[in-house]
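Ticket reopened. Same input as before:
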Amino acid sequence: MELFDATGADRETATYDEPQARKGFFTDTTLCIGCKACEVACKEWNQLPSDGMTFTAQSYDNTGELNGTTWRHVAFVEELRNGKGGGDEQVLRAQAGRWLMESDVCKHCTHAACLDVCPTGSLIRTEFGTVVVQEDVCNGCGYCVPACPFGVIDKRQTDGHAGKCTLCYDRLTDGETPACAKACPTESIQFGDLDELRARADARLEKVRANAHFRDASLYLRGDDDGIGGGGAFFLLLDKPEVYGLPPDPVVTTRDLGAMWRVAGKAALALVGVTALAALGARK
Amino acid sequence: MTAQANGAASASYYGRPVVKPHVWTPMIPWYFWIGGMAGAASVQCVAARVRGEHDLAVVYKRAALAGAMTAPVLLIADLGVPARFMNMLRVFKPTSPMSVGSWILSAFGAAVTASTLAELLGWERTSRALEVVTASFGPGLTVYTAVLIADTATPVWHEAYDTLPFLFAASGVGGAGAIGSAFAPADQTAFARRLMIAGAFGVPIVGHLMEKRLGRFMAEPYRTGKAGSFRRVAEFLSLAGGAIGLLGGKNRTALRGAAVCVAASGVFERFAVSAAGTQSAKDPKYVVQPQRERVDEREPASVDT
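Engineering reply: fixed in the latest deploy. New output:
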């Protein structure tokens, strides 16, 4: 068994007395109107402080990124006809250009790097298959921050510990829908059992791709066979992932941990070997 | 308009980072150096005992103790919630190099402290045995930090996982050798001097090997900006210290000068690696481009746009 399997969603949820069906988000970006109700609902429910008033002066996106106190982020991509956009040229030529909006969130990876590297056990896999920071255990070492392949989790300036989306764990335990999905006026954010969401997404993709303008549409992190074993939160995208600021082929870093320790073992042996060789030499 | 990171190379979201750069303070690169030095010093301590150079062995032992005492201070100062530092030992987690490292550092610290106490009590055999115990954790202490940073999504750290441990090992050996060379009695410097020189030349050699294996594109963050400046200083100090140690090492003052150069080069090298990681995380092209190439290789159909 590879090391990272120990913390994978399938294995960990099985350890609960009352395992639940794995829950997740299907974010259908074709329905997003960029209203940011999800951002506001998330901030309100989770009592997350403001990040201040800043203007990116780049687009209607003034939130910028996910961080320790922003757990939903609506990306706003303008693809213009003059060829400066990152989109599909043929589609753009047929259109005046287009706006792409996507509500980004923690992916709740099947193989979650943040959870793997967390040295305190603060990051856990819940009975819903989601990944949650136990804020009273986290000591703010910051290791999860560079470990996340999506740049989601961050150390909070306010109280020093790590923070990210919990898929509204408190609401789930009461059988409620997460705040963002509840607030979404267009059902761009859909919450439910992951199996059901995946089936729904497959049907939706087929429908979307039937439209010639959207033949590049794809499901992102929908499968089990990508580098993170699939996301608990996955997306229907109309352009390449990197256009939305998402990595096109994310891999959980701990997949290579065995190989890394083997290299480290060789380096440790080399250290001992060099020292021994030097010790064999003369006294002067 | 989506910003193009590097000509037509790869698309990005307004040039924003895809992954987050590490949030560690300068305490951490300092710890990487001090921990690396202490680990290597513990091994050199036992080797010096075997050679019968007991004064030199004591120098190494003090270096290991000093490192083991300083390390937790640096690490705790870096925590977001320092009062919870004991949570580091709440679990033992093989999937987390930081957890494994916390246990290595704790065991190392306990062993070298116990050995020093035994020495003060005059229990020589116990003290020597505990030096061996300390040394058994030493190499791990020196190299685990390389695994720690490689086990992230930071492009130039993860991609360099096959060379970073050797870089840290070489720098650790050089650092400990430098301490030994500087503080050993005049008639016991030969062993330490050899290791100092080995480390001094080892670091730039491994560094170049690392760049070569990373390739021109992925090595850029190590060569440019703050990281590049740090590395050039580190390399200069390394080569200067190595050369002085090699040519003028019989002269005590020259040897001490060389030791300062080599020790300082190790510090600059760790800061360079830290800065390179930040640079590679901040520019989305280092994340996107290799991943895009992987995807296009798997699905050539999607290249048509």
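The CA atoms of residues 113 and 253 of chain A lie 6 Å apart. The two ends of chain A are 51 Å apart (CA to CA). Please confirm and we'll close it.
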